[in-house]
Input
Amino acid sequence: MVTVVVATPLEPELVERLRHVDPRLEVLFEPDLLPPARYPCDHAGDPSFRRTAEQERRFEALLGRAEVLLGFPGEDPRQLAEALRSAPRLRFVQAMYAGAGQQLEMARLPRAELERIVWTSSSGVHATPLAEWSLLGILALTRELPRLLADQHERRWNRRPVEEVRGKTLLVVGLGAIGREVARLGEALGMHVLSLTRTSGDLDELLPQADAVVLTLPLTAETHGLLDRRRIGSMRRGSILVNVGRGAVLDEEALVDALRERRLLGAVLDVFVHEPLPPESPLWELDNVILSPHMAALSVHENERIVDLFADNLRRYLAGEELRSRIRTDLFY
Ligand SMILES: NC(=O)c1ccc[n+]([C@@H]2O[C@H](COP(=O)([O-])OP(=O)(O)OC[C@H]3O[C@@H](n4cnc5c(N)ncnc54)[C@H](OP(=O)(O)O)[C@@H]3O)[C@@H](O)[C@H]2O)c1
Output
């Protein structure tokens, strides 16, 4: 038997689905030991939750039996390091976040611990909501939706022709699960799509060619500050920047300057250097920014999709096959 411990809040029917993946699996789920979810698909759960001493003992005993874990306990890198001390049998961890590589890096686990376990992220499950959001943002700014909503609010009848996205050049930076879906939707809208990955494409060459740039990058040592002031300065005048990857991939101050000076048409941001975005951030009040509180990937279908991915990975694990969305422990993505 392979013992699977669910260490994240999860709907009971999805736990049942896991129980039916294979008779060789024993799935343990004790919701009273986990922080309660505040909203659907809340992986971290209520931060004010504390286990009693008795619950803590039960939780450690549960971890002690785990060969497979779903979710980083508490979604907190420090808790992950602690949990591993109670889990000597652990061999495979399926994280709930696509950017789990970053959490794993922050846990600062010894190399032996990192290598003993196969780590997988939920990369792949957020492609639809983030691609929809990215294209919504590009369409909204191109078609002047913020101006129209302001006019409507003021009861102003203000007619004038606006731009179209068809025929425009879209640069997708990072062509993983999210990037591929952004590219597919961009092509469907008649955009000319350029892209780059870690190993192919030259950002400095491609950036000045794009009317819209969508960043779908993980935060790694290599991508931190990748879109710096010089690169933002090299973007086409009147272009649009979308960031759905991680905030620290770009220089936020340089972006604010480019938006204030209207060198860029606008920005669509779901992720920020500091989250929650501080109230004093100028990004809140710029009229050419559309922002969302790191929620563009939140979808009512998220847990279901993660469980589907995990179920497939469990079958692969039992069959000794390569797992999907594996986190590289050298680059942490
Ligand atoms: N806004 C949100 O709530 C939210 C939700 C989900 C994910 N995310 C973020 O989005 C990221 C991507 O998710 P995904 O599911 O698309 O991941 P993925 O499938 O792993 O794709 C990542 C892509 O980034 C590329 N990349 C990595 N390092 C690079 C570099 N230095 N230069 C250029 N490209 C680089 C990879 O290149 P290769 O193909 O060469 O490996 C790959 O194409 C996640 O890591 C996470 O941080 C955000």
